[in-house]
Every structure is written in structure tokens, then in C-alpha cells.
Amino acid sequence: SLLALRDIQPETELTIAYVDANAPYRERTAALKAMHGFICRCDKCAIQAGFARASKQLAAAEAAAAESQTFRAAEAERKARAEAKASFVAPWLAPTPSDPPAAAPAPPAAPSQPSAAVEAVLEDLSQLGLRALEAGLFAEAEVVLRALLAASPPAASVGKASGKRRGLDRYGQRRGDALLRLGGALQRLHRFDEARAMWIHAA
Asked: Is the pTM of the predicted complex or chain greater than 0.70?
């Protein structure tokens, strides 16, 4: 006989595990391919594979954004040095009172919103977290949602950087949803104090 650990809807397909379902994803995939010749696409494997893929994409996108920001900072510094050098001229080349004053160096740019690549990965993580919850994979949901919260900028800082209410609404809504979903996952894992803290934080 079988003992169900969660509610099962009528006509739901029941499956068995050919390998230890708690083993790491790479080990399960390698064992299934070697012993049975297929790659599992169950919810757990699909979510863990999607999370691994999203993590790599997020790291690459953040590295590219950091490199771009470093380049812009270096370019701004080079321009400032050139302007400072140009302002130090020989006395016979000094500007006359009628000459317009030299332009002041531009202030450093405010922090920008995440790049489109980062934004796409954050949205993928949000969908993966929701899928894990719907599949009853609460431990996987916790991992995905915590990664999403760690990678998502706080709503206040994004709104301040962008100066647009639309940006504040979008990022704030996604963080709020992630906090609420994380609280739900923690509750189902019987970690009630942590769940309550997530819900209070979301409010």
C-alpha cells in the first residue's frame, strides 16, 4: 500500500522514483541516464534544472552589468582628467573675461535599474518559485524564492534610482509576492516563526 504525504486530486498521475529523490540533481540525472537511458522531466527535476540555469544566467548578466558600469565609471574619470588637464593652460592662453566659463564635470550617475537580462532571469526565478509551490515542492520553493529576494533590488532603491513610480510598483510587487510565497513555503515546512516574519515583512 501507498501513503500519500499530501492531498492528491482525482486522476492525478502517480509516479515512482528510480533513484533517491533527495540526491543532488546532477547525481540523479547521471544515474537515470546511465541506468535507464532517459532524462527525468518531473516537476522537481525541471525546477532544479531551471534554477541552476537561471543562477548561471544571473551571474553572467550581473557580471556584464558590473563590467559595463566599470567601463562607464572609467570613461567618466578619463573625461574628468582630460577636462582638468585642459583647464591647466599657460598664462598666455588663459581665457579672457569675455570667454564663457568651462563646464563643470558631470556628477556621477545614479544607480540604474537592473539590465534587461537580469530582469528576465528574475522573472524566470519568480515563475520557478510559483511552480515549485504549486507542485508541493516547498523546500525547492524556499531555495528559489530566497535567491530571487537576494538578487532583486529593494523597491525603495529602485524607485529612487529610476525616479518613476512604475519601476517602484513593479519591483515592489515582485518582492512582495516572493515574500508571501516564501512565507507559504515555510509554513508548509512547519517553520511557522519564519513564515510569520516573511508575511510581516511583506506587509
From this structure: no
